[in-house]
Amino acid sequence: MAVAQSPGPTSRSGAVAVVVALTWLLVGPRVELVGVGGASLRLEDFVLLFLGIFALKNWKSVREHRLIRPGIGLVLVVALIAVGVATALGAVQPLPSLLYALRPVEYWVVYPALAIVLWRDRSRVVSYVQFCLALVTVLNTGVAALQYLGDVSIGFSKFSNQRGAGLTAGPYELGAISALLACYWFAHRRHVLVLCSLASVLMSQSRVSLIAVVIALLIIRFSVRRATEGGQGPPARIGRSNGPHPLSVVTCMVLVVGAVVAGPTLNATLVQPALARAQSTSLSSSWTSASSVVARTPHVQTSDEYALIAYDGIGESILNATASADASSAVRFFRWQLLLRETTADPVHVVFGLGPSFPGPSVDGALLRIFFETGLLGIVAWGLLVRKWLQGVPVWFAAAIVSLLVGSMFIDLLFALRPMVVVWMLFALAGGPRSKNETAMKSRSPAVLKGTGRASKNEVV
C-alpha cells in the first residue's frame, strides 16, 4: 500500500503566495497604471496575471485530475465574437472592448489557482482561505463602521463619507461581498462573522443586498431544517465539532448585551437610515420619468456617443429633466431604457449585442449588461456557467449564488473584481476536488443539493 506523502515546502509556499495574492485582491488599493479608453490596466491585473501563470505552470495536474469545472470558455468565445461584430460595425473601439471582454476570464483565474493548492493540501489551505475571508470580513466591517458611524474619510470609495464602503470600491460592492460571506459564515456557524457581515450590509445601505442576503439566509435555514427533520442532521463544520465553540458563545453574549445597551443609538444611526433609504425607493415614478426622457433622446450608434449622453451629460440628460426623488433609480432606468432601445433596434444587436465596453463602466445591472454587450448568445453562455456553478454544490454556495444573481439585477456584480474573486474562491471551496491525500470514499451529506453530488462531513460543505 502506498503511503501518502505530506506536501513539501514548495507546495506550502505556493499556497501561501496564492492566498496572499487573493487577500490583496480583496482588500488592497486599486492602483491604475495605464488608461485605455473606457478601460484601464491596474495593479490587480498583474496580481491576476501571477495567478494565471501559476495555474498554467500546473495545468497538467489540472487536466489529469479534473481539478476544475468547465464553463468560462463559452463565455469568453461569445464575448470575443461580440467584440469582432461590434468592431466591424464601428460601434466600439477594439482595444477597450477586448479588455472588457477579458474581465470575466481574468477573475476566473482565481479558481484554478486555488483549486491546485487545495488539491495538494486541502486541510491546510482551507484554514488559510478561512483566515483570509475572516480578515476581509472584519476589516471591511471595521472600516465601514469608521466611515458610516464615525464619519472618518478612509478607504477607496468616494462614497465612504456617506455610506459604509469598507475597503471595497463602493457601498454596493461592500453589500454584495458581505452577503456572499454571510452565507458562508452562517452555514459554518461562525456567528460573530455572520453578525459582522450583516452589519456591513446594513452600513452599505444597499437595498438590493439587503434583500439578497435575507433570501440567501432563508434558503440555508430552511434547507438545514428539512435535512434535520429528515433525520440527516445539519451540515457539519470544517474541522470542528458540531457544537458551538465556547468563545463564540461568550462573544455573542457580549455583543447582544452591548446591542441592548446601545440600542437607541444603533437604531438612530444604523437601522433607521437603512429603512429610510429603502422607503425612498420610487421605482414606478423613476421608470416613467426615464421613459419620457429616453423618448426625446436621439439614437446613439457608438460607445462614444452613448458615453456623451449617459455619463458626461447625465445631469442634463436625466437629473435635471426628471422630478423623481430616487435619483439613483432614475439614472439606472434611463441607461437601461436607452441601451434596450439601441439593442433591440437591430436583429444583429439582439443576437450579438452592442459589444463589450459599449455601455461603459456602469450599467447598474449585470444581467442586463450581458444582454446589452453580448446579446442572446451571452445570455445562453452565462446561463450555462451558472448551471455549472449549481451542480453538486453545498446549499450554502447555491444560496450565495442566489444572492449574487439577486444583486446582479441592479449591480454589475458579475463584472466586478472583488465580488467575483469571492465567488470563485467560494466555488473552489464548495465544488473543488478533494485533496490527493484524502480517500475517494465519502459518505453522503445533506448539505449537497439533492442528486447532484457527495461530500464528507469533514469537507467544506
Structure characterization notes:
By secondary structure, the chain is an all-alpha fold. Helices cover 66% and strands 2% of the residues. A two-stranded antiparallel sheet has the order 1-2. A hairpin with a 2-residue loop joins strand 1 and strand 2. The chain is globular. Mean pLDDT is 81; it is low at 1-6, 233-257, 259-263 and 439-461.
Number of helices: 20
Q: Give the proportion of residues in helices.
A: 55-70%
Strand order across the biggest sheet?
Answer: 1-2
The rounded distance between the terminal residues' Cα atoms is 30 Å
- Report mean pLDDT, rounded to a whole number: 81
Beta strands, count: 2
**Broad shape:** globular
| Secondary-structure content class | mainly alpha
- Percent strand: under 5%
The helix/strand order is: HEEHHHHHHHHHHHHHHHHHHH
The biggest sheet amounts to: 2 strands, antiparallel
The parts where pLDDT drops under 50 for at least 5 residues are 1-6, 233-257, 259-263, 439-461
Say what oligomer this is.
single chain
Using only CA atoms, what is the Rg?
A: 23 Å
